[in-house]
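Example record

One chain of 587 residues, shown exactly as stored in the release files.
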Amino acid sequence: MSLIDIEGLRFRYAGAAADALSGVDLAVESGEFVAVVGANGSGKSTLGRLLGGLARSADARRALVCGHDLTSTEGHFAVRRDVGVLFQNPDNQLVGATVEEDLAFGLENIALPSPEIALRVDDMLTRFDLGALRGREPHLLSGGQRQRTALAGVLAVPRRVLVMDEPTAMLDPAGRDEVLAAVRAEAARGLTVVFITQEMDEVLLADRVVALAGGRAVFDGPPAGLFARHALLDELSLGLPPAAELGLALLERGIVPELTLTLDELVVALGARSPDAVRTPTAAESLPAAATASQGTAPPLAGATTDTAEALAVAPLGVVCRGLSFRYDEGATTVDALRGAGLELAPGSAVALLGPTGSGKSTLLQLVRGLLTPDQGSVLLDGLAPKQAGHDQRERRIGLVFQMPEMQLFAATCRDDVAFGPRQLGWPAAEVDDAVAGALEAVGLPAASFGARHPYSLSGGEQRRLALAGVLAMRPALLLLDEPFVSLDPASRRDLQAILGDLRASGMGLVLATHDIDRAYALCDSRIVLDQGAVVDAGPWRFGAGGEEALQAHRLKPPFVVELWRRLGRVAAEAPPQLAAAAEALS
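Predicted C-alpha cells for this chain:
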C-alpha cells in the first residue's frame, strides 16, 4: 500500500458555494519527493492541510495517510504525529523563547523523557546548522534561519511525511537556498516530501509533480513531462523555469536542439565551455545589449490600454530621504529597522528596493508613505517636508500596495472597494466614477464585467489586481509596492508585471520592494540595496566590475540573464546572436 493512498478526495469549506477539492486522486510512495502546483485557488493548500490532519470533514472513497483514515475522527488526529506541516510564514509556528526551546516544544507535548528530548534537540541543531543559534530568540533571526528553525521543530518529532506549503515564498535568495538545501538533505535521508510551490524551478527538485485545477489532479508525472506540455501549462496558469523559458524561445528559433530545463543544460546547449569553467567579466567588459534590453516593460496586459494608464498618471513626484532611522519596540527588545538611511527617488523613476529578509524594506516604504514617523531624519516631497507639501501630497500622490493587499478588501462590490479612497478624498461623484473605471480598466478588470462582483468571488490573482486598482484610483504619482509577486501563480505574476510596465510607461514612479530579482531587473532602471537597516548600494544596474559581488554580499543573486552571460564566459565583443532572444523570452 502507498504511504499516501487517496481516491476521490472532496472537501468544501463551511459556507462556500463550491468544493475546494472535487475528487482528488493521489498516491505517494515512501521516500518520494512530490511537488504540487496549480493556479491560485486550485486547492493546493487545502490538500496540504488535509494530509497533515489540519482540516476536518473530508469525504473520499479512500483517504489513507500513513495508514490513518482521514475521514474518521481518530485518523484525523492520529495523522498529525506522522505528518509534519511547514507553512509559508515561519512566524506562524515558532513558539519558543529561544531556538532550543522551540525545537523542544513538540517533543515535550508528546511527553518524551527529558534526556531523550535533549538528544533530539542536539541532533536537530546539528542537522540544520543551528548550533550557534540555540540560545537566540527566533524573531531576531533572518528569514532563512527562522524557516530552518521551524523545519527543525517540525522534524524534531519523528515524521514519515513532510508537507511544505510554499516554504520559500517569503525568503530572500540566500534564505531560499538554505531551506531548499535542508529539504533536499531530508529527502535524501528517505523522508517523504509533499512540496507545494508556485516556483517552477523548485519543481525540478521533485521526483514527480502533481498539477491541480478546479480541485482535481489533472497531471501526475515527471517534471519534464509537465514542462513539455505547453498548452496545459497555459491552461493551468503555470509557466516554465527561467532556463526552460529562454530555452524554448531558442528551440523555436532552431538555436538549441532540445528543450533545456536548467541553467547548466542551457549553457551546454549554447555551446559554452564546461559549466564549471566560468569567468567573471573584467571591468572593461559589459553585458550584451540583448541582456540590458530586458529592462524594458512587459507586454501589455489584455484589457489594459495605454490610454487608461495615461489617464491615471499625474505630475511626477520626487522624494528625498535623509538620515532615516526607525526602531521598533517589542517589549523588552528593541529592533533597529533603519539606521541613517538616505536615498533619492527621482520624479517618474522606477527603482528596485532590494535586500535580505529583515533589512528594512517594508519599514522604508511605510516611512515614505507616512504610515510611520521616523525617529530621526526627514522625508522631503518635491523638496518640501510633508507638512509644508500638504496632506494631499501623501494621501493622493503616494500609493502603497502592501505585501498581501487582498487582505484589505472589504466592500460588497469591486466598484465600491475601488471607490473608497477617492470618496474619502472628497472627490465629486463623477470624478470618482471616472477614477474607478480607469483603475479597473488599467488592471484588466473592466467595470462592465467586474464592477458589480463581490471581491471574494474573484480568484487570488484577480483580488491582488483589485487591491492595486483601489490604490491607482487615487491617481498616485508614486506607487510603492511591497513584495507584490509573493504567492501569485505564474500567470498572475506575468499579468501584474505587464500592469506595472504599463504604469511605468505612463510616467508613474515605481518603488518595487522585492526578492524577485528578475522582475525587478525587467521593470526598474536602478536599484537600492538595504542591509541591516542601512543603504549599502544604490544606482543603475551594473554587472561585472564587482556589480554581482555587491548583490551576493547581501544575500542576493544577479538576474537570470546576467548569470547566464557570466556562465557563458564571453565578452561583449563576442556576444552570441542567440542571446538576442533573452529579453523577449524573459520579459
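Notes: DSSP finds 25 helices and 19 strands in the chain.
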